[in-house]
Specification:
Layout lengths: L4 E2 L5 E2 L3 H9 L5 H10 L1 E5 L4 E3 L7 E7 L1 E7 L5 E8 L5 H9 L5 E5 L3 E7 L2 H4 L4 H27 L2 H16 L3 E2 L3 H8 L3 H13 L3 E4 L2 E4 L1
Antiparallel strand pairs: 1-2, 3-9, 4-8, 5-9, 6-7, 6-8, 10-12, 11-12
Helix pairs in contact: 1-2, 6-8, 7-8
């Protein structure tokens, strides 16, 4: 059972919150900064599928993920979506940092892939915390890791066959959720990969015949 108690407004009321933040960030952020985060952040718990950050909305707070996995996707002018990367416990979203600092509308959507707990840090703390070397390093590393993940996503679209992209996509979900069982519809997968449901169904069948996955009703098992 989770240590968190959820209120009707989806905020977290927990005597253990400081311990959780210290567990996730205490080894990379200095003590004074950890105390600052504990004192200034507000906490949210989202069920799988809930939207944390949406397209076209101003980003007023930066999410520090405490537990679970958050999926980041991009949308073009025609409404086509493309999966970019995941952020998990101990991570933050570099693209939301950019929108927050430039005070512009979000160009990404952040969706809870699993049940998620996040600490939301007010935008005005971004500049103030730059005096901490550990915060500057944390932000730099977040940008670097997310940039590399977006390059992988770009390379996947440009150079990999769709069946290879699909298999990498399933393995990515397994790694970030910690589960071999993936409960996504064929249409949800197709949306993330910017293809059609019919193509995804055909490729899942092919991967099943190659003994890489098992396709069951309402779930996919990665072997």
């Amino acid at each position: 059972m989770s240590i968190f108690e959820l209120s009707s407004t989806n905020q977290i009321i927990s005597l253990h919150m400081e311990d959780v933040i210290r567990q996730k960030f205490g080894r990379i952020l200095q003590e004074e900064l950890v105390q600052d985060i504990v004192g200034s952040a507000h906490y949210r718990a989202l069920k799988s599928g809930a939207v944390l950050i949406d397209f076209g909305k101003y980003v007023k707070s930066i999410p520090l993920v405490l537990d679970g996995a958050v999926k980041i996707i991009r949308e073009d002018e025609k409404g086509h979506e493309l999966f970019l990367y995941y952020i998990t416990g101990g991570d933050t979203c570099a693209m939301s940092l950019t929108c927050c600092l430039k005070q512009k509308k979000s160009e990404i959507r952040a969706i809870a892939e699993t049940d998620v707990t996040v600490a939301m840090v007010p935008m005005e703390n971004m500049d103030k915390w730059m005096k901490y070397p550990s915060w500057r390093e944390f932000i730099f590393n977040a940008y670097n890791e997310r940039f590399e993940e977006m390059l992988v996503a770009l390379d996947s679209v440009a150079f990999l066959k769709l069946d290879e992209r699909l298999m990498n996509y399933l393995l990515d979900i397994k790694q970030n959720t910690g589960s071999y069982i993936i409960t996504k519809t064929h249409q949800e997968i197709a949306t993330d990969l910017s293809t059609s449901r019919v193509v995804v169904s055909r490729l899942l069948k092919k991967l099943g015949e190659e003994d890489k996955i098992e396709v069951h009703r309402n779930r996919i098992e990665v072997l």
